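Lecture 7, part 2: worked example. A protein chain together with cobalamin.
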Amino acid sequence: MTDIVLSTLNARYVHAALGLRYLAANLGELRGREKILEFVLGARPADLVETVLAERPRIVGFGVYIWNVEETTKAVALLKRVAPEVVVVVGGPEASHEVEEQRICVLADYVITGWGDLSFAALCRDVLSGRPPKEKVIAGEQPPLEAIAWPYALYTEEDIARRFLYVEASRGCPFKCEFCLSALDKTAWPFDLDQFMAELAALYDRGARHFRFVDRTFNLKVSASLRILEFFLERLDDRLFVHFEVIPDHLPDRLKEAIARFPPGALQFEVGIQTWNTEVQAAISRRQNNATAEANLIWLCQNSDALVHVDLIAGLPGEDLASFGGGFDRLYSLGPHEIQVGILKRLRGTPIARHTEAHVMRYNPDPPYNVLATECIGFADMQRIARFGRYWEMIGNSGRFRRTLALLLGDAPFARFLRFSDWLYATARKTHEIALERLYGFVHAFLTGELGMGEETVAAAMEEDYAASGARGRLEFLDRAARGETRSRTARGRMRQARHQTAKA
Ligand code: B12
Ligand code: SF4
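Predicted complex, written out as structure tokens:
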């Protein structure tokens, strides 16, 4: 009998929802009367509701996040129309703040804000025993972590074989970066490390090899970080992959020594730099020692085989295009494997809202609430940076343009890539779904046409990159060169051809 359905829309299939597994694991005597039904963004709300109602549940709980709030709202609206007797409970970070302003919260029967581990179970007990609470909005209880049952046994064999397994050794963050929801946490709370290690071991023994730690700052308590790294070092194999979010200015030697022992492909670090601008850091209450962060990033890139992914945020209060560009160049020079150029979002509940008036921050009213313009960066420039970020994913982060990138960026990475990005958008008029071969064609056309680089230098770099990328298609500009046509073409002609290719897409 399924009395309770726990559901959410994940960003992609590979992301398993850890939050729902906590809620299920903590149902106490109701365990076994629940079912987790996960969907992927893009699912049709009516199909989702049909699948959920097929279980004939009395309670449906939805995990609501910034990426799924629009679709989940539609699903809840449909569900309440066709089955008004079913009690709908919403929770998760998106439903936890500015509750009164959200349609999904109006439509739902109950909203649990904050931690749901124990509060969802308590609400289910009350509802199923015929004593539903009167108040609609319930502040989730934040129990001591020892009181929370572990969720990891709820990862299925399919999850273990095919999905990222999210795990957490601690909750909360002691820092206060104003753009981040974790700024609302008072501190970080560690789970019992011995028990956590036992849970990890059980997952590993079941075949799990892809672990993603959701800890806001993995390297906060070095002794715990070390123990976790040692755990994985003792169990290294070809399939192991572990992802951690780290703060950049805290990498003591003991930690470095352990990190350096991991082979290529096993470790990934997500490092938040966000901005190097110290005035902006101060404005958003971000504490970061830039010099130490810089030295640590260089160390990671040069002395470890970890994949280093670094986040930057454009559109922070007080940061203009020149400052952001300078920050990008500074970061690029340190050699990280990936740079994520994100646009500031005004997440519900985050303190960044206090800058809205003073810095003339104009946010998208709809998710993901990205900033559209600030006093320092106008709308058109913000759009340019957003495209820059998207194209950078395809070219800078993909690893498919290693040699070509050096030609493209020269000695002014941000300025040159922004110019390329503007040109590419003007030529292709799209930022998504550009086939790899066509992208190579565009880059070739830009380098030879716009920058006037020599055909042979460009073709040699691109041919090598294309072969290394593992793709097995055909590059039109190489075919043309083989036919001896290329040199007779003018740059203008090549650009026309690139445009023509796009038009055919
Ligand atoms: C994994 C993750 C992702 C995954 C997606 C995961 C998925 N399932 O699809 C990826 C990497 C794709 C992702 C992307 C983004 N993410 Co993200 N992500 C996370 C992360 C690191 C872990 C989530 C998690 O499992 N936490 C652990 C569990 C236990 O916590 P929880 O999910 O919050 O669940 C608890 C409560 O919320 C509640 N709860 C949850 N579900 C339910 C359901 C009911 C019924 C109830 C009552 C309660 C309840 O109870 C749970 C237990 O206490 C969090 C940060 C964090 N550490 O939590 C950010 C976080 C969720 N992400 C965030 C953001 C902003 C983003 C991005 C917009 C970032 C960006 N690129 O700019 C993108 C958007 C993606 C998109 N496509 O648009 C914000 C969410 C803000 C919001 N309002 O939703 C967070 C909180 C980070 C932060 N500190 O600001 N993310
Ligand atoms: S950005 Fe990172 S360090 Fe800052 S509050 Fe959020 S989780 Fe903590």
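The chain is about 40% helix and 15% strand. Residues 137 and 474 are 58 Å apart (CA to CA). Keep this in mind for problem set question 3.
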